[in-house]
Specification:
The structure is a homodimer of 347-residue chains. Chain A is of the alpha/beta class. Chain A has 2 domains: 241 residues, Aspartate Aminotransferase, domain 2; 101 residues, Aspartate Aminotransferase, domain 1 (Alpha-Beta Complex). Helices cover 35% and strands 16% of the residues of chain A. Chain A is built from 9 helices and 12 strands. In chain A, the strands form 3 sheets. In chain A, strands 1-9-8-7-4-2-3 form a 7-stranded mixed β-sheet, sandwiched between helices. Chain A has a 3-stranded antiparallel β-sheet with strand order 10-11-12, covered by helices on one side. Chain A has a two-stranded antiparallel ribbon with strand order 5-6. In chain A, β5 and β6 form a beta hairpin. The longest helix of chain A has 23 residues. Chain A is globular. The two termini of chain A are 34 Å apart. The model of chain A has no long low-confidence stretch (mean pLDDT 96). Chains A and B meet through α1, α3 and α6 of A and α1, α3 and α6 of B.
Chain lengths: 347, 347
């Protein structure tokens, strides 16, 4: 989270806008909170350029609940949906979907150990598919699509949990975009769903009401008490993003951050990143040391230098730097400086 | 929320335990957050005396998601479940359940306009029922069960969203207790589920993984990123409750608060509460004025005196005072003082 946003939240945590209460305590149906909710939606629509023909939903839970909600809302029980497997999150999404729909895996990058994405022409979904699902950015492998798939007449569905708001995105090319909040939006426990209204022809029977997009759209995401604090925090983040210059400015900043770190890795001979250059992630940069036995030393010394959260995911090991929107360029400069110094001493 | 808890959260909002980060930013799988999560569970178990044979789950969303999760986890698709209708929340629970199970309404208090609860002997669930569901406290009607139903061999399921932690409760008499957090636990977006493990024989096919109690129990509610900030806040509330003397102390305090307010209403001739005396809620006290046209004046003057959130629910109108755990006795004294003064001037 941007420090400026946390400081703003702290300043009014016990007395929100002179109400004498915390924003956590006010009614979600009262005018003050409804104004917060509406402003957050309006700012997100403005940032991403979301057409009026799309709902913007603020839902409970993370992306995992949406892995089920997507087939429940967009596919009948006998339908087939196309999925692309480019790593851990793709795999979770399609694994959950198998409980609700026939899953057709159009491409699976296991052979490259998830260091590549499929060629664009491999992603033509069969005409009868309910939708084509992909994961534009994989946080663990650090692999990112450098293009937007064109599935023809089939709606394109994207799990943007780890990449939303990092750059502009042409929303109109997607049927549905969803994102758990905890990377670039706000606190965990909130998911944003942006869905083309005409795709919602009624969720199938057996869909929990809270996961029904059409009903949530009708009720402006207030079918039940929403995660009000997370929604409020998301609103502060959206306003902060606008103050930073919006998504074009974030894209420039994120590209510079990624360029700096990959450049340092590639120039070193001591550090390595396994991902094919054209699909390296701007958000998550995994890297290894030439001498893996130095990794604990690297992590300990980095921590002592104030550089935290550099452990690779427990499933793959190594190191990983996450460069989400809230990470300033100075943070990456500090990391690169530390890496050079570490290489000088141990390389 | 107790002010002391909000102040504690504010003090460490940008730098949690010297981490240089907010608790919203740390990994839910890291040792520091896992310690928070485990302490919260341990404190809740201690406060309520939850036997080891029960899971205590911290789940995304509010009670509404559980309205679906309960039949999905405790009943087959052809099963029947018994419900009791004592007001708005009961009705929502059984309405959602109808999407998943045959609903047998054992008692319906519509005839009294939800100012009563059924007699205990009306609540014997038929032997084949998957469970008996009831709502111990109805927030809108302000009606509360003065007894715990005895459904015989059938598991008892209770929506304690608005009454949990207000007094001791014999958990072992329940198969499942659930509660949305936003009344007596913490911020919205978290639900606590306390369920006897032996009742979980696998959720039915078509259950979203995040709603599967057995899987969530196995993963200590970390199947996916949980609502970490809400969980942390709940932990602070549990510790505060222990410092207050635990649930016996809260019961004494809550009874005194309710006694004071109902006493003032009954003594007045100017104010009235419609609920049968033996089942008046400790938590939610709806009341009307003898002259309903004075209600807007009452609310405006109350607000000017710092007494807020006194509007009755939009579905019933009138006034309502909610006396959740965080409301101190002094708050009720101030309300009663204002009510006497208002009656003196307008009565």
């Amino acid at each position: 989270m941007p420090l400026a946003v946390l400081e703003e939240a702290r300043a009014e945590l016990t007395d929100w806008r002179g109400s004498g209460m915390s924003v956590m305590e006010v009614s979600h149906r009262g005018k003050p909170f409804v104004a917060v909710a509406e402003a957050a939606e309006a700012d997100l629509r403005e940032l991403l350029g979301v057409p009026a023909s799309y709902h913007v939903l603020f839902m409970h839970g993370g992306a995992t609940a949406q892995f089920a909600a997507i087939p429940l809302n967009l596919a009948g029980p006998d339908a087939t949906a196309a999925y692309v497997n480019t790593g851990a999150w793709s795999k979770k999404a399609l694994g959950e979907a198998r409980g609700f729909v026939k899953v057709d895996v159009l491409a699976d990058e296991a052979d490259s150990r998830y260091t590549t994405v499929p060629r664009a022409d491999a992603l033509r979904a069969p005409a009868g598919s309910a939708y084509l699902h992909y994961t534009p950015n994989e946080t663990i492998g650090g692999v990112e699509f450098p293009y937007i798939p064109d599935p023809g007449p089939v709606p394109l569905v994207a799990d943007m949990s780890s990449t939303i708001l990092s750059r502009p995105v042409p929303v109109e090319r997607f049927g549905l975009i969803y994102a758990g909040a905890q990377k670039n939006i706000g606190p965990a426990g909130l998911a944003v769903v942006i869905v083309r209204k005409e795709l919602l022809r009624g969720a199938r029977p057996g869909t929990p009401t809270v996961l029904d997009y059409a009903l949530q759209g009708q009720d402006r995401s207030m079918l039940n008490t929403p995660p009000t604090f997370a929604w409020y925090m998301a609103g502060l983040v959206f306003r902060w993003l606008k103050e930073q210059g919006g998504l074009p400015a974030m894209a420039a900043r994120n590209e510079a951050k990624a360029h700096l770190l990959y450049g340092a890795i590639d120039a070193s001979g001591f550090y390595a990143n396994p991902v094919a250059r054209e699909c390296r992630s701007w958000m998550n940069v995994p890297f290894t040391l030439k001498e893996p036995e130095l990794e604990p030393t690297f992590l300990t010394q980095a921590r002592a230098a104030g550089l935290v959260n550099l452990e690779g995911h427990r499933s793959v090991g190594g190191m990983r730097a996450s460069l989400y929107n809230a990470m300033p360029l100075e943070g990456v400069e500090a990391l690169v400086g530390f890496m050079r110094e570490f290489e000088r001493r141990h390389g």
